[in-house]
Amino acid sequence: MLVDTSPQTSNAPRTAAAPEAVPRGRGARRLAGLVVSTGVLLLVVVASLAVGAKQIPVDQVWHGLFHYTGADADVVVRDVRVPRTALGLLVGAGLGLAGTVMQALTRNPLADPGLFGINAGAAAAVVSGVSFLGVTSLTGYVWFAFLGAAAVSVVVYALGGSRGATPVRLALAGTAVTAALNGYVYAVQLMDTAALDRMRFWTVGSLASANATVVRQVAPFVVAGIVLALLLARPLNAMALGDDQARALGTRLTATRVLALLTVTLLCGAATAACGPVVFVGLMVPHVVRSFTGPDLRWVLPYAAVLAPVLLLGSDIAGRILTRPSELQVGIVTALIGGPVFIHLVRRRRMAQL
Amino acid sequence: MNTTDSRPAVRALRTRGGLSIRFAPRAVLVAALLLAAALAASVALIGTGDYPMTFADVLRTLTGGGTEAQEFIVHDLRLPRVLVGLLVGTALGLAGAVFQSVSRNPLGSPDVIGLGQGSSVGALTVIVLFHGDPAAVAAGAVAGGLLSGAAIYALAWQRGVHGYRFVLVGIAMSAVLVAVIGYLLTKANLTDAARATVWMVGSLNGRDWSQVWPLLGVCAVLVPAVLGHGRSLRMLEMGDDSAYALGVPVERTRLVTTGAAVLLTAVATAAAGPISFVALAAPQLARRLTRSPGPNLTAAASTGAALLVGADWAAQRLFGADQLPVGALTGMLGGCYLLWLLHTERRAGRV
C-alpha cells in the first residue's frame, strides 16, 4: 500500500496556509504522485471490470464497452461490472473526501462517518423505512439513508460543534447519537424479523447489488459533494490555524462550516445510501495521504479523491477473489485491510500530531 | 472542585495512631445515594412482572417471610436476574472508569475500543458455526473479550501504553471486529441470526443462578483489587513522570488495572451480552455528580449498577415483561442523556 513514501513528514511541521514556503521540488513531486495515483486508479478500474466469478480477459472488456454485441461477456461487463465499478468510484471518492473534510472541519484526526453517527443515522432511517413503511428496494433505501445521515450530521454538529468545540466533545456527541440510534435499530430488528433479514445484508456494506438506477440516483449528490469539497480546500486550510487566525485571513467561518457540513452530508449520505455503511475508508485515507502530501488540503483532497476509490475498488476485487465463487462484502474487506494499516500508522507516528 | 463553596471539598480523617485517610464528603455521599438508588431499583424490579408484588411484599419475602409462591418467584426467578443486573452494572461501571482513566480519554471505554465487539465475535462464532448451548456461548464471549483485550494492549504497547494510541488502536480493532460480526451474520441462517442479534443487544431476561455464581466470584476478587488501585490511578492522571516521582509503579498499575477491567468486562458481557453505553456513561455521570477529580471508582461502580437495574426496571414497566431487552434501552437512554448533558454544558459555557 501507499504508506512508506514519507521520510519528509518528520520535518518541522509546515503551516497549512503558507504553501509558498514549500520548496519547488516538492510541488513537482506531489504532482507526479497524483499522476501516478491516477494511473493506479485506472489499472484498478480495469481489474474491477475483468475480475470476478466469471473472468473476462481485458480485450473482451474493451469489446464489451465499445463494441457491444450482446455476447455473455459483454452483458456481464455492461450490466454488472460497469455499474458496480462506477458505484465503487463514486462511493470511494465520496467517503475519502467526506473523511478528509470532516477531519479538517472538526480538527479531529479521529473524525470518521462511522464514529460521528452518520452510519447509524442512515441505518436507523433505513430500518424505519423497511419495517414501518414496507420499503424493499435498494432504490427506496437511498432516500431514507440520505435523510437519516443528514439529520444526524446536523444534530451532532449542533450539539458537539459550533463555538468552543473540542475533538473529544464532538466525538462524544457522535458516540452518544450512535448509541441511541443503535438501540433503536436493535429494538426494531428484534420485533420485526423480516427487517432483520433485509438489514443484515445492508449493514455490512456491499457493492454487489449495484445497478444503473442506483448509480444514477447517487451520482449527482456525490459529484456536487466532490466539487464543494475541492472548493473548500482554501478556507479549510485557513481554519486549521484556529478560528481567530482564519478570520484574520478573511475566511467566513460560519459559511465555511455550513458548507463543509453540507459537503459531508452529501458525500456520506449518498455513499452510505448506495452500499451500506463502509467503515474505515473515510478515517484511513486522509491519514495515509497526509503522510506524503503534508497537511495542505489543496493536495490532500485531490489525492484522497483518487486514492480512496483505489482502496474501495481494490477491496471489492479482493473480496471477489478470496472466496470465489461467492463474495466477501467490500465493507468487510476494507475493515480487514484498514484495521492493520491504521494500527501500523498509529504505532509509527508521533502522537503529538494528534 | 466547587471553588465557590466555603466548605473544603476534601477532608482528612485522622486517628490517634497517626493513620489518616483522605476523603471527599460529597463523593462519599453521592456514592451512598447511588448505592441506595441501585438497591431501591432492585427491589422495584423484583416486584415488577406478570405477578406484581408491592415493595413491602418483596422486602418481607427477601427476609424470609413470604408465601410459598412469593418465595418461588422471588428466589428462583427474579432475584438472580436482579443480581446479574447489579453485578454486571458494577463490573461495567468500574471497568469503564479504569479504561477512561488509563487512556485519559472519555472515549476509551470498553464499548468504543472493541472489547464488547470481541466478546460478540466469540459468542457469534459459537452460535453461528457450532450452534452451541448458552454455556458455550458464554465461554466464547469470555474468550473473545480476553483475546481482543490482550491484542489491543499488545498492539498499543510501545515503551509503555499511551492514551491516544490505546484509543486509536481500540477503535481500529473494533471496526475490524464489527466487520467480522457482519460477516458471521450474513453466513448464518435466519434463526441463528435472530438469536445472535438478541444476544448482541444485551439482555437480563431469563438469567438464573448459574449465571450469578461465576460473575459473583470474579467480582468478589477483582472489584476490591481494582478499588485498591484507585489512589495509584488518580496519581497516574497527573502524567507518568509525576506519578513515578510520587512512587507509583506506572506500568504495573496500568497492566493490573487494565487486565482486571478486561476480565470484568468479558465476564459481564458473557453473563448479559454486550450491554452498550453503561461503561461509557457511568464514569462520566459519576464524575459530574461527585464533582471530584480522579477516576471516582466507587461512584462509577454504583452508577453503573443503578443505571443498569434502573433501565431494566424502566424497560419492564414501559414495554411489558421481557418485551424489550435492557441493552436497547440503555443505549437509547444513555445516548440521549449524554446528548442532553453536552447541550446543557455548552449553554452554561462550561465546555
Q: In a few lines, what is going on in this structure?
A:
The complex is a heterodimer of chains A (354) and B (351). Chain A has 354 residues and is an all-alpha fold.
Notes on the structure:
- Chain A is globular, with a radius of gyration of 20 Å.
- Chain A contains 14 helices and no strands.
- Chain A has one domain (82-353): ABC transporter involved in vitamin B12 uptake, BtuC (Orthogonal Bundle), CATH 1.10.3470.
- Chain A starts with 23 loop residues before the first helix and ends in a 6-residue tail after the last helix.
- Mean pLDDT of chain A is 79; it is low at 1-20.
- Chain A has 354 residues and is mainly α.
- Chain B is mostly helical and 351 residues long.
- Chain B has a single domain (23-347), classed as ABC transporter involved in vitamin B12 uptake, BtuC (Orthogonal Bundle).
- Helix content of chain B is 74%, strand content 2%.
- Chain B is built from 15 helices and two strands.
- Chain B has a two-stranded antiparallel ribbon.
- The chains are: A mainly alpha (354), B mainly alpha (351).
- The interface between A and B is large, with 55 and 53 residues.
